[in-house]
Design a protein that fits this description.
Radius of gyration: 22 Å
Distance between the termini: 32 Å
Order of helices and strands: HEHEHEHHEHHHEHHHEHEEHHEHHHH
CATH architecture of the largest domain: 3-Layer(aba) Sandwich
CATH topology of the largest domain: D-Maltodextrin-Binding Protein, domain 2
Strand content: 5-15%
Number of domains: 2
Number of strands: 9
């Protein structure tokens, strides 16, 4: 899903039998072994030849996971009169402009559309009148969601127009073997205590690592990765509560910038650009000892590091809770089946289904009510030295600050990373010069 913060008791409600079945699977499956593969849904011919099934379409980007986890098939078993068809574009930078175009035109839309967190504020601000209100849809329980995630899907007028799917609570993934070579602790709790509470302690750990292992692999992958992680744990980032762009004047962003630049200038990074072939290969080569990793990145690391990395990687708590990534579902009001689409969106984002999605695809739930299910609470990853990933990421998710999300969050973040910090890391450009260039690029992109 998208790479890709006092709970009220929820009112009891009747749970359909298959939801109970899915929940039971979730309770016993855990993450140590893969849950049973879902049975494909095979539609039966209607007894009445005149009977017609309603087809709901779901538009997503990337490998969103709901289809792969069998959730559509499960829903169709519960609702024999509904058929679900998914359309997907590989990249959000292609999918999102098309979504805006179709929303504006009121045509060419799926009944349910996915929206990445970096785009959600713009969708609510510019397209809110073209979306169905979902906060009061049957089956939706606001108290089941993390408050900060619910707030991200709620427009300025108080209408909840988007329901959260996954989130990206952050930890730090580290190589136990490289920490051992550097004489640093390898136990995940001890590692977490090295930098608990302050990203500057993470820098101090990196300097200690480099002193002890001067010719070894880098301490972390990239300065841009550090920048994203530190910024993601701030209570104010690029926009304030009034929707005003504050990136240039926000001390939290500048402090994150200066800290990330220090990592680069102290030689603590592998000078890589994330999500490039070189970065992918570096996981297999053991080119760095740590990486700030949201929950969804565990599967990425496992894929790129391969079988040889099993047991070498572990997961520790990040210095401060933060989130990177996550998505939402919206229902366009131009759709033909708005009521049925709202019911589907509500069901797909309910705690039981989010728990199943986590068990089968690793997408961490935005529904805090799912965190007490053993599927989440007891989840461990054999690949990451049997790390208690459910506990680590649930703790991080609960601590994420409720930071405002602005309409151009994704653009600002990408500009800071790819226009600015990448040059500091890879070419040695001065942090001040790169910062000024980033601010100019943001102003130009936003016609300021």
């Amino acid at each position: 899903m998208g790479y890709g913060p006092a709970q009220r008791p929820s009112a009891p409600r009747r749970v359909p039998p298959l939801v109970l079945l899915l929940t039971a699977i979730a309770l016993v499956a855990g993450c140590a072994t893969d849950p049973p593969e879902p049975r494909p849904y095979t539609p039966r011919a209607p007894a009445d030849a005149a009977a017609r099934r309603t087809t709901l379409t779901v538009g997503v980007f990337g490998t969103f996971g709901m289809q792969e986890a069998g959730l559509y098939d499960a829903y169709m078993r519960l609702h024999p009169d509904i058929a679900i068809r998914q359309t997907s574009l590989t990249r959000n930078d292609v999918y999102y402009p098309q979504l805006l175009t179709h929303l504006t035109a009121g045509s060419g839309l799926a009944d349910v559309q996915a929206v990445e967190v970096g785009n959600i504020a713009e969708v609510l601000e510019t397209q809110g009148d073209r979306l169905v209100e979902l906060g009061s849809a049957p089956g939706v329980d606001p108290s089941a969601f993390l408050p900060w995630k619910w707030a991200q899907g709620t427009a300025a007028d108080g209408r909840t127009l988007a329901l959260g799917t996954d989130i990206g609570p952050q930890a730090v993934c580290y190589r136990r073997d490289l920490f051992a070579r550097a004489g640093l602790p390898t136990d995940r709790d001890e590692v977490g205590r090295l930098w608990a509470g302050d990203w500057r302690k993470y820098l101090a750990a990196g300097l200690s690592y480099r002193r002890r292992l001067p010719s070894g692999p880098a301490f972390t992958d990239s300065a841009s990765g550090v920048l994203s992680a530190v910024t993601g744990s701030a209570a104010l980032r690029y926009y304030d509560e009034r929707g005003r762009l504050i990136v240039a004047e926000n001390p939290a962003v500048r402090e994150a910038w200066d800290l990330a630049a220090t990592f680069a200038r102290q030689g603590l990074t592998a000078r890589l650009q994330q999500f490039t072939p070189g970065w992918d290969q570096a996981f297999a080569n053991g080119a760095f000892a740590t990486v700030a990793c949201p929950a969804w990145m565990l599967g990425y690391i496992r894929d790129k590091a391969g079988p040889a990395g099993r047991g070498l990687w572990d997961v520790a708590a990040a210095p401060r809770p933060g989130s990177w990534g996550g998505s939402f579902l919206v229902v366009p009001s131009a759709g033909r089946h708005r009521q049925e689409a709202a019911a589907l969106a509500a069901w797909l984002t309910a705690p039981a289904q989010q728990a199943v999605l986590f068990a089968r695809r690793g997408s961490f739930p935005s529904a805090v009510a799912s965190y007490t299910l053993p599927t989440v609470a007891d989840a461990r990853s054999p690949y990451f030295a049997d790390a208690p990933v459910g506990r680590v990421f649930a703790s991080a998710a609960r601590g994420v600050p409720r930071a405002p999300v602005g309409p151009k969050d994704a653009l600002v973040s990408q500009t800071l990373s790819d226009v600015g910090m990448l040059q500091v890391d890879q070419t040695g450009r001065s942090p001040e010069s790169a910062w000024n260039e980033s601010m100019r690029a943001i102003d130009n992109a936003l016609d300021r």
